[in-house]
Structure formats: structure tokens, C-alpha cells
Amino acid sequence: MWVKWHFQTLPLSKDCFCTLKLSIDENIRGRINSPSFIVKRYTVTKLYNIIMKNEFAFILGNGKTRKKFLIKDLLRKGKVFACNRVYQESPSPHTLVSVDKDMAHEIQNSGYSAKNTHYTRESNVIKNSGALGLHKKYFGYSSGPNCVALAANEGFPYIFFIGMDLHSLDPNYINNLYAGEKFYKQKTDIPQIFNNWVKQIQDIIKEFPNQRFVHVNPLLDFTPSAWTSLPNFSIMTSEEFRVMINN
User: Fold this and answer.
1) Could you give the CA distance from residue 11 to residue 143 in angstroms, rounded to a whole number?
2) CA 61, CA 83: separation in Å to the nearest integer?
3) CA end-to-end span of the chain, whole Å?
4) Which fold does the domain 22-246 belong to in CATH?
5) Domain positions in the chain
6) How far apart are CA 84 and CA 178, in angstroms?
7) CB-side exposure of 50: number of CA atoms within 13 Å?
8) Is the distance from CB of 134 to CB of 119 less than 8 angstroms?
9) Cis peptide before 191 (omega within 30 of 0)
10) DSSP conformational letter for 7
11) Does residue 97 or residue 172 have the better pLDDT?
12) CA torsion 246→167→139→74, rounded to 10°?
């Protein structure tokens, strides 16, 4: 079996297993609760991530705090997962997810899916478009949580949430970088209810107890207690995050 990662190819047998101890420098990464933990039984994709030292996965929400980080910078530090209209950004993320049918069809019809990795619900896949079907286990999950699930299933030790603001600075208006664009709410609309996203991500964090999930630069210092109560979840400031990924 051959596993492709960007411009490199590596032959690996189908059933590869590995035990890896991951240690964190406590002086630099003091916000991480557990400085070391064990990740076991890696699939081919997960083992390849270890060999190539692909430790970091970045999940990009479309909240306005995401503007503090450039996609082109994150692409050099790990694997970038993003949603929906990010497909029009340049450079493109490594993996794009869109569960909404209209949005998914726009992306496929643009030709993006034939040239880039794009996941959507199986029912949304246009034949020969190049789009891939999401795992049925996460059917009903929104695009952001599906990004988290993909990263977790690929075995990334550290999965960072960036631009997952949940709240708005102005409680009367939606917080979304693409508000007002096609298939999105208007800029004057009230904020979306985020309870489903919180529950879906909480379930994923629980499913993968040996991987670390980190909320970066939460807007208004808000992170749901459903996440912060979990032992494999942490919060980081923008400064702590930059130190960690550049160390």
C-alpha cells in the first residue's frame, strides 16, 4: 500500500502498529494539563504522520479571530482542515469539508474537488467530481466537527481549534468571516446557536482520549465547560500557540 502526503510517497504494509510516547516541554507548554501520554495502534496514515513528524492538525473555524493566523503559515507547520467557502482562499487548506448540499455542489462544480481533498456527505457527492464521502459514523455532524473527526482519525497528537469563536463580540450580530455571501447568513442576522457543535466536538474529544485538543485564543475567553472538563482538552493564548508550533 502506498501512502501519499503532499510531495512524498512512502510504502507501508496495511497493518502497521506503533507505540509512541509524546512528551511536551512543560516550561513552554504550561497550559497542557498532561505533559505526556501514550498513543497506540496506529493505522498506515497515523504511522506516516509520526514518521514525517506531522504532529499538528489545525481546524479552522470561520470566526473572526481566525484572521490572526494566515493559512499559508499554518500549512508549513501541520495539516490544515477548513470548511465551506475557504475553498476560495489561496492557498488552499490540505483538507476541505462541506456538509451543506448547495455549498458542496458549488465547490464540486467549480472544479476544486478534482484538484484538492474535499469531503462531503455521500449523498452530496457528484459522480466523478473528485469529492470524497465522509464517514457515516459522523452523519449529522456539522462541517467543523467533521474536520475535527477527520484529524482525530488520522491520529494527530495535537489538534488545534482556530477561529472557533462560538460567540460574537456583538450579541446581536453573527460572527462569521463569510457572512453575507452565498449560502451564508446576512451580516445583520443574529448569531447561530452553537449547542450542536459543542456536543458533537465533545463526543469526538471523548472518543480519542490519547490525543490533545486545544482551543486557541477563544473569543471573550469563552470555551464551553463541556470541553474544558475533559482531561485531554486545553486552552492556549495566541502567544503560547505560536511558541509551541515554532519550537
Assistant:
1) 31
2) 7
3) 33
4) sialyltransferase cstii, chain A (3.90.1480)
5) 22-246
6) 10
7) 20
8) yes
9) no
10) T
11) 97
12) -20
Burial class (CB in 10 A: 0-12, 13-18, 19+), 165: buried
**Which are the contacts of 236, defined by CB distance < 8 A and separation ≥ 6?**
31, 160, 214, 215, 216, 217, 244
- 89, 126, 195 from 110: Cα distances, Å: 13, 12, 32
Structure confidence by residue, pLDDT tens digits, 95-152: 999 999 999 999 999 999 999 999 999 999 999 999 999 999 999 999 999 999 999 9
Which of 11-25, 152-166, 185-199, 231-245 shows the lowest mean pLDDT across its residues? 11-25
Place of cell 513528524: 53
Contact 138, 35 (CB under 8 A): no
pLDDT value, residue 24? 34
Distance CA 152, CA 149 (A): 5
Q: Are strands 95-97 and 117-120 parallel, antiparallel or unpaired?
A: parallel
Dihedral in degrees, nearest 10, Cα atoms 111, 114, 115, 118: 100
Averaged over 7-20, what is the pLDDT?
30
* Cell 509512541, located at residue: 20
Please classify residue 148 by burial: count the beta carbons closer than 10 Å to its beta carbon, then call 0-12 exposed, 13-18 middle and 19+ buried. Answer: buried
Q: From residue 73, how far is each of 95, 121, 154, 167, 169 by CA, in Å?
A: 15, 29, 21, 25, 26
Q: Cell numbers of 92, please?
A: 488552499
Find cell 478534482 and name the residue: 114
Non-local (6+) Cβ contacts of 76 within 8 A are none
